[in-house]
Design goal:
The protein is mainly α. It has one domain. It contains 9 helices and no strands. Helix 5 packs antiparallel against helix 6, helix 5 packs across helix 7 and helix 6 runs antiparallel to helix 7. The longest helix is centred in the first third of the chain and has 41 residues. It is elongated and about 65 Å long.
């Protein structure tokens, strides 16, 4: 009788411990999902740079009159995007590595490389502003044009090629883990190659960098990242997939909260 009571008590304690672990995992992964969602939405704050950088393509920008504030603000917005981009991969890494650590690490590395190119691009932009502010005048026109061309090229590499790689990796990891609806993951898996094709078309001169087709090739990736950000903020990860992504629960090992 006593043995039966002890066995029942032990089973009850194990069940309570399992329930506590499940609650801890749910709270932990919800925080991760919320943080990642907010960071993904922050990566869209640079959209106004399309207008803010308008003066840079004026042949007389360096020697012309007018404020530099819009261009500087554009540079700051791009810095926010670069930092947020790294943050998305770092925040998701503890969850995604349970599915495929190599691919998850590749996502972090790709995001860092992407953000590095953004920082270099901002440096080119701010150098043009410095030439204006120091009164370099007509003598700096050639240098200014060269810096704009360098920015356009590194933008193409860092914000066309690298996002294609990042979203292909992320889409693959999310599709296998079922952390979000597979239909959403497929947008990333399909969008990555589409953006890569657009990148190659621009590189080989088949279409212009600002041509409508170039913009359309980036649309699936933009849709994927924005939709993912909104989903993670509003819904979080699919609860049914958490246990398969975090196998510590199944093994009965303690799970630390984030």
């Amino acid at each position: 009788m006593n043995t039966t009571y002890q066995t029942a008590t032990t089973k009850g304690d194990k069940q309570m411990n399992t329930n506590r672990q499940a609650a801890t995992v749910a709270a932990s992964t919800r925080k991760i999902a919320l943080a990642a969602g907010v960071l993904y939405m922050l990566t869209f704050v640079s959209i106004p740079t399309i207008a803010l950088y308008g003066p840079l393509h004026d042949a007389n920008y360096i020697i012309g009159a007018g404020p530099d504030t819009p261009v500087i603000i554009g540079g700051l917005l791009e810095i926010i995007v670069a930092l947020a981009g790294i943050g998305t991969a770092v925040v998701l890494f503890p969850v995604l590595k349970k599915q495929n650590e190599g691919a998850a690490l590749g996502l972090v590395a790709s995001r860092i490389l992407e953000s590095g190119t953004i920082f270099v691009g901002v440096a080119f932009i701010l150098t043009i502003v410095t030439l204006r502010q120091t009164g370099a005048g007509a003598d700096a026109l050639v240098t200014g044009h060269a810096l704009v061309s360098l920015y356009d090229r590194i933008f193409l590499l860092g914000q066309s090629f690298m996002p294609a790689v990042c979203d292909l990796l992320l889409g693959f990891l999310l599709y296998r883990s079922r952390l979000v609806p597979r239909a959403l993951s497929l947008i990333g898996i399909v969008g990555g190659p589409v953006l890569l094709v657009g990148y190659l078309a621009v590189m080989f001169g088949l279409i212009g960098q600002r041509a409508p087709l170039a913009g359309l090739s980036a649309l699936p990736v933009a849709l994927f990242e924005f939709s993912l950000g909104v989903w993670l903020v509003v819904k979080g990860f699919n609860r049914s997939a958490i246990t398969s992504v975090l196998p510590e629960m199944e093994k009965g090992e303690p799970v630390k909260a984030a």
